[in-house]
User: Fold this.
Amino acid sequence: MTHSRLCSTILAAMLLGGSVACDSADTLDDEDTTQDDSTLRGAAARHGLAMGVAVGTGLQRTDSRFAEVLGREFNILVAENTMKPAAIQPAQGVFSWDEADQLVAFAESRDMKVRGHTLLWHESLPSWMNSPTWSREQLLAILENHIKTLVGRYKGRVAAWDVVNEAVEWNGTLRETLWLNGIGPEYLEWVFRWAHEADPDALLFYNDYGAEGLGQKSDGVYNLLRDLLDAGVPVHGVGMQMHVAAASPPRMSDFKTNMARLANLGLQIHITEMDVRIPIPATDAGLVQQAVVYRDVLDACLAEDGCTGLLTWGLTDRHSWVPSSFEGYGSALLFDAEYQPKLAYQVMLDGLREAD
Ligand code: XIL
Assistant:
């Protein structure tokens, strides 16, 4: 019986009333002062694994339950939207820092680290930036200023940046974007170098979806990162978004093989945006299937030394991009809309406690 089958059998039994008994370069693994293994952050700290979530605008300030669960359970956070180009530089040369400043200060007050997301993307571009009329030189100047201003502001306070988001197509080629079309493929080299100049201690990541397992896209990401490293570009990690459906997760053996080859390049791996969507309204069977996927991904990460961070894309089902982005799906996170831990939370916690 595979681990997953074993787990789902036990979980199914548990739902019927039993108990759950399922089975680094410079990293983010500074000792967490909260080494209490009744929480995710405490149980993960023993493995040198950062556990985190994405935080929507203002939630940590406006919702005391949110802030309480976030600070108790997690030791790293990422802004869901607040640090994206459209939010941070809404008009040319005009930077809007308030939300990002408050999120970083919140993290520091709870002894949490911060992932920065994202310096460059083809989405979330402010309209002034997203113009075909810019010359190559102008685009380079815009990017350099954006990156150095943002990374420089949080120098020493943002542990890791998603420098480039989603630059590779399903077939493994570079995505046609403002940046590729206006600058050429060398834009990738420039942005990592500028980020590194602005904060030499920050870990710099390439982040993408659908490249967790094996296939044309993950080959494309692998080749891109290998080439950047060969050219001496400061890239330190790869983010695997892991937005998946419970019924069709990546094959775990492929995911492990892919992580291993990336780690062999000397890269860290962060699972950066995990959510596991199920049809809604959620059923017990859906929640069990979801819990197994969360647990499988955690176990694979714990088994790979290079995997040093695991973040979900939101804290609770109350605030999640899933229902509005995937029709008919939801309930994708570890806590329900009432801030109660779900089965997936419990099996994750068990997994962290039980692993060597
Ligand atoms: C999403 C946010 O969750 C939404 O609130 C927003 O409207 C669009 O962006 N990949 C990413 C994230 O890298 O930045 C995206 O976040 C989800 C997909």
About this structure: The longest strand covers residues 268-279. The radius of gyration is 20 Å.
